[in-house]
Amino acid sequence: MFRNRVEQVSLCHDRAFKLNLDTQKLHMKSILLSCLTLISLSAFAQEEVNPNHYSRNSLEPGLEPFYHGVASGDPLSDAVIIWTRITLNSTDPVDVNWRMATDTLFTNVVASGTATTDSTDDWTVKVDVTGLSSDSWYYYDFEYNGDHSLIGRTRTAPTGGVDHLRFGVVSCQSYENGYYHAYREMVNRNDMDCILHLGDYIYEYATGGLSAGMPDRLVEPANEIISLSDYRTRYSHYRLDPDLRDAHQQYPFICVWDDHETANNSYSDGAENHTEGAEGFWVDRKAYGIQANMEWLPIRQPDPNDPEREYRDFNFGDLADLNMLDTRLYNRDEQGAGNDNERNLLGYEQRQWLYDNLSSSTSKWKLLGQQVMVAPLTAFGIPVNDDQWDGYPAERDSLYDHLTSNNIDNMVVLTGDIHTSWANDLPGDNYVASTGAGSVGVEFVVTSISTTSSPVNFGVALIQAVNPHIKFADLAQKGYLVLDLTEDAAQSDWYYVSSITSPTYTSSWGAGWKTNDGDNHLTQASTEAPAGVYPPLAPVFNPNSNVGIYEQMNEPVIVSAYPNPFVEKFVVQFNLFERENIHVKLTDVSGKIVLTKAFGQMPNGLHYLEVNVPSQLASGIYIFTLQSGENVINRRMSKL
Fold first, then answer.
1. I want to staple 320 with a disulfide (CB 3.0 to 4.6 A). Which of 316, 408, 432, 512 is the partner?
2. Which one-letter DSSP state was computed for residue 240?
3. Total domain count for the chain?
């Protein structure tokens, strides 16, 4: 059944950084000059294929053709999204079979079907599996032509009386800045119901733009991503990380975007890291980022008629309601200093949707998953960062007023973006820091998975002295948090990894803070919140396993070829499973060769070719051919 594979066995904020971007781009330039070689095609000296001769990542042959693994997300009481991506040396539409069962052997299949994908979805497969039982763990997989994907594990949301929930919370995962050890820890501990991702799933910068300079952690494409093909390729590259792949395999995710899914410090009509004209039109760039995000993540689109809407809500019985907000793209006005009472962060429609949900909720805990810090952060009375809710004070005042005027208790805000850890009271009128009286809720801010922390010129003690509602802050460590909910308390435990730049690391509990039922303010926890009992992990992929046999793969795989149709150039991403002599050519429909180049031996791993076609090339259909030894792969390309 598992042909050509190892048998499966059981188991932000970057504003301060942006000020130094010109300096970092100099480092990026030196990296690019040392790593990239421009090679002219022999047929037309002025045209070129731009190859990358080192491997940034590589496909696992045992996962063919589902190299990106599987994922699930947006769990409801009777439904959940399941996801995969199929990679074939073909451009024809593909039918992929799927199934869901209550056991890893699939002896009790509860749902199954077939989904079709093609280039319009970037060969991703997303199925909304309905008719499931609430509060249940399931296992699922995909199949094509006898090849099966990894087995994924997911679960549905509970209904009715619920006494315990645990969410992993993550944010900000710059691939170039470090390893995803936090995800490895979350998989190993196996004690969460779901992972909430609060944004900055990818970063838009060019190679070296936000980087620790690790030679094995370089992004594709090498340029700053602007086009739809750029965004798709960047997601594809991130999703090949084995730790991220394993976390998606084992837990359902609930994701929202922040700014770097489009561009740094974005808002509805632009971004700090977007130059209108020189980098295209913002309306197009934003649409490309949103489309790729929807294709590559297991997200249920809340309104098919409104592709820009990502805010949505989830219910977990009588214990928690979760509202996932978009404080970034939907209706946010441009950042600016000063107390501008007309500046929108949520916008009217999202704000009223949130207020209606908060007022009608009958669950114990009202959770808000969102991007930028709600609690004030000031220095001598001046807001430190106008990208946060401090830059939209009327919006925050309105939220506080709605909570107090409607006697809404137990609001817990979950925040990402700033790559550091915080536990905050949300100080309303007449707030008393020593007792917590006057706090309208609490906020837990998760540090980054790997993204660098913004420079801070003063210590935590001084921050808390001038912001007494801030009860805890850690400005350096990387990791994740676990939100533990019971009827009595909501506790956040921060966990940190010792290093993100070394392949080896240790993990530790950093701090715990909680709010008791009805308190609306923070109390320090003396110990970690205890976990419950969770079902076995889905069978994990082990590329070094001696169990099972798969055929040695020799044939290269084209992962992507974009854009198609193209105008002046296109980019081909391909994988070699062993060192090969590579030759490429482009022919028209009559068989005439219009471009050709021999590259000699290239190492195994993923490679990246930018093909600039001759300016005199006519519009029409062309065949791109990649040949390695006796293996020949063709990809049909259209020129506009």
1. 316
2. T
3. 1
Count of all residues that appear for the chain in the document? 640
Alpha carbon distances (Å) from 464 to 330, 379, 431, 467, 468: 33, 10, 15, 5, 5
Classify residue 574: in a domain, yes or no. yes
How far is the CA of 354 from the CAs of 279, 325, 617, in angstroms?
A: 34, 8, 54
Q: How far apart are CA 572 and CA 229, in angstroms?
A: 10
- Measure the CA angle with vertex 33, ends 180 and 263; round to 5°: 50
Residue type, 355: Y
> Is the pLDDT at 473 greater than 70, yes or no?
yes
Beta strands at 605-612 and 593-602: parallel, antiparallel or unpaired? unpaired
Tokens of 202: 């990818």
φ and ψ at residue 537, rounded to 5 degrees: -65, 155
Residue 584 lies in a domain: yes
Q: Report the pLDDT value the prediction gives residue 590, as an integer from 0 to 100.
A: 87
By the 8 A CB rule, do 152 and 538 touch? yes
Kindly list the strands in the beta sheet with 194-197, ordered across the sheet, starting from the edge strand earlier in the chain. 124-129, 80-85, 70-73, 252-255, 194-197, 164-170, 478-486, 489-497, 507-516, 523-524
State whether the Cα torsion 368-315-72-130 is positive or negative: negative
Question: Residue 339's pLDDT band (boundaries 50, 70, 90)?
Answer: low
Tell which residue, 391, 273, 376, 284, has the closest CA to residue 332. Answer: 391
Average pLDDT, the chain: 88
| Bridge partners, residue 49, by sequence | 39, 611
pLDDT given for residue 46 in this prediction: 27
Contacting residues for 388 by C-beta, under 8 A, at least 6 apart: 13, 372, 373, 374, 377, 417, 418
Helix axis angle for 181-189 and 242-250, nearest 10°, is: 30
Q: What 8-state DSSP symbol labels residue 400?
A: H
So what's the pLDDT on residue 15?
A: 33
Instruction: Label the pairing between strands 194-197 and 252-255.
Output: parallel
Structure tokens given for 580: 């090969």
The CA distance from 387 to 397, in Å, is 16
Question: What's the sign of the alpha-carbon dihedral 20, 24, 29, 32?
Answer: negative
Largest CA distance in the chain: 81
Q: What confidence tier does 48 reach under pLDDT thresholds 50, 70, 90?
A: very low
CB atoms within 10 A of CB 98: 21
Q: Which residues pair with 48 in a beta bridge?
A: 40
> What single DSSP character describes residue 640?
-
Please give the torsion angle defined by the CA atoms of residues 144, 194, 79 and 297, in that order, rounded to the nearest 10 degrees: -50
Query: Up-side HSE of residue 284: CA atoms within 13 Å toward CB?
Result: 13
pLDDT per residue as tens digits for the range 122-152: 999 999 999 999 999 999 999 999 999 999 9
CATH number at residue 582: 2.60.40.1930
Q: What are the tokens at 431?
A: 């707030």
CA dihedral (517, 521, 526, 529) in degrees, to 10, reads 50
Say which DSSP state 511 is in.
Answer: E
Angle between helix 228-239 and 282-296 (nearest 10): 30
**Cα–Cα distance, 96 to 83 (Å, whole number):** 11
Domain assignment of residue 14, yes or no = no
Of 586, 611, 408, 423, residue with least CA distance to 510:
423
Instruction: Name the least confident of 2-16, 351-365, 477-491, 532-546.
Output: 2-16
In a domain, residue 606? The reply is yes
Query: Which residues form the domain of 596?
Result: 556-639
Rounded Cα distance between 36 and 28, Å, is 12
Instruction: State residue 2's pLDDT score.
Output: 29
